[in-house]
Amino acid sequence: YAYEWLQCNSKSSRDTHFKEHSVRWSKLLHLPYMNPIRFAVVDPMHCLFLG
């Protein structure tokens, strides 16, 4: 969805896209070793205790 956000032409379309998907474009996504899903830290309290 980040690439779709980048393709939006106006600020209002980007805002709408962000409200729907909660994702924005970042220059870090150009890095070949950057994988936001893989590098996300899981919070044990919210993941294990609260479900």
UniProtKB/TrEMBL annotation:
Domain of life assignment: Eukaryota
Protein name: Uncharacterized protein
Organism of origin: Rhizophagus irregularis
